[in-house]
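Table S2 (continued). Query chain:
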Amino acid sequence: MAALRFFFYLLMKPATLGMAFLGIAGIFAPSTNPNSWWLPALSGLFMPAIIFANLYLLIFWAICKKWWIILPCVTIICNYNYFTGTFQSPWKKDILYTQENDITIASYNVNGFSWIARNVQYDIKKIVEENHIDILCIQEHCEKTNLDSVAIQQEFGLPHRRVYFNKQTTWANFGISIYSRYPIIRYGEINFNSEKNNGMWADILVREDTIRVFNNHLQTTNVSMNSKKYKAYKSVKDWKGQARTLVNIVEQLKDNFIIRANQAMQIRKIIDTTRYPIIVCGDFNDTPVSFAYNHIAGNNLTDGFRDRGKGYGYSFNGMKGLLRIDFISYDKSFTGLEYDSPRLPWSDHNPIIMTVKLKHSI
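Corresponding output:
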């Protein structure tokens, strides 16, 4: 037993070095383009697991009273950006405001409405009414081709809409959409050359002001097929098959990091040429410590959760609720008033709802 404990003790040293390396690499994820170096992006995606591992190592070396405690301690402290992107003070003071000139915007990946409410009953109109939503951005929109405009308006409770369906079949259309209580005076499509992912923007006349709203659905991870293969190999104890599948998953993640980075640069170019106040919404399929998220944000967009969120923030229900990959951000023309992310059973994502106000309207 003593020999086993000693062997375990020795294993903790390379584990500490490895977790420190991955944790430090993750610090550079927001500023490192995956086209040039993709490892920081991988660390950023798995930062929750890396932080938990470093917490365990911190406790282990504290009990052992060894100087190795320095590495997990420094790694955790240096990832301050991850914590602020995931946790906000639950005692943050609310902003008192009147509801006369505010704008409430929501972003929701509806998971194709589970392929048109298959075994799921949903009520988007109820969400709109209960939360007084003025603008609704939807990702993974799936809509039957035979719906007319009146039926659509009744289903969503908002009179104006623009859609970008990048996949059309005989029975349904797939893509993203923007719904609005206010007139949409123009819109544009952002083509990612994909049947699953795309972006769009809409110029919306809100009372006497025009604002531009971006709705984005960045490259999905697409690892579900390889995950099923891994489980199949694991069930028959095929170690070589498991190893090959893990390599395939990492390579697939690498490719997706690069694709999302290029999509983020495409979106940012349009943001940089926009003269109206800007709100950016969407499912980025990446975390707040990612190049895609930070490149879109630039130095002029404020993350709604960092600004007005409270407590632990996550938007994706998979991976044990460890990831926040859905965002609403806005430029300096807006003041953030309130942020919410209600837990709903209709999708693998939760909606995020943000109330803002144009500063000159306060």
